[in-house]
Amino acid sequence: MVLLIGNYAPDQQQSMQRFNAMMLQGLTAAGIHAELIRPEPVLGNLKSLGRFVAKWLGYIDKYILFPRKLKRKLSMRPALVHICDHSNAVYVRNCKPRKILVTAHDLLAVRGALGEETNCRASFTGRILQKWILRGLQRADAIACISQATAADAQRLVSSRNQRPRVSVVMMGIASDYKKLPNDLARARLTEVPGLDVELPFVLHVGSNLRRKNRGGVLRIFAKCQQKWNGQLVFAGDLLNDELISLAKKLDVFHCVIQIENAGDELLSALYNCAVALLYPSRFEGFGWPIIEAHACGCPVVCSNSCPLPEAAGDAGLFNDVDDEDGFAADLLRLTDPAERAKWSDRSLRNARRFSTGKMIAHYIDIYRSLGAKW
Length: 375
Known about the structure:
six-stranded parallel sheet; Rossmann fold; 12 strands
């Protein structure tokens, strides 16, 4: 049995929850007995006590209560433990002497805690947590990174130990919901979005309000297009915070903004299918999952050339330096021409073929076997 360690639901790490599910479903489909275990929200559910208190109670759920549950599951002697998110590498010490694989999605928070510039500032307690995470990574038997850029960070940061873990790259797969849809079906799904005029074109951004996601840049780039193009700007993910709302109003584009919180896979697929482009000017990423989701739906992507986004977008990406907002705007305006969009849409679909969930699962199974796991 392979024991998968997943993420704490109240942390709302949607992409990580999706990855947990993909691993469990993929391994099961491949005939591998796998079980997914994750910290359960017990004390962290007491949100009536306030967000700050709930956060600290969540730490009790994750770092005091969950290890006891994990110990009971480990008594069943799994062939291997796969920690599906490096932010849970603190559990490595609880899983020894079992063989342990950790998937590293990005090491930006670890780097930020070490003083490197990644747009991920760490508080005093955050620095302590990131040190625990780094120590867990150093004690793992293997680390699977989702990009070459993340693998380079892993090689550099875990090299202080004499017996460092094996580091490899396992490219992400694409969930089956993300695919080219009939236009009528995609548009029908969008009619349920409040405020979205399905008769008008729109640009899409998928992500959060984290500084490294550069949503301020998204607003400024969109504003540069407004005099030449009558379109809408859709944010899927976090609702804009007060600072971003203020910027949108200052740029006189807030009336064009549609916000969709916690969009499900079916709705996201429809958004990708119908958007003129995915606008993704991130400053720092571990991979850029929305890029390959968009490409699987035939949606062109205009993104920054910050590593590792070119790894994901390949020759189907329209790249700009992260601060070249005029360049981003020019590329978006190019894509408002249906013929130009169709050309980049074809490239996008071809690029998406590189990212197969089946290949991803097969690669993980190969790593399991290399660590001595048997079924």
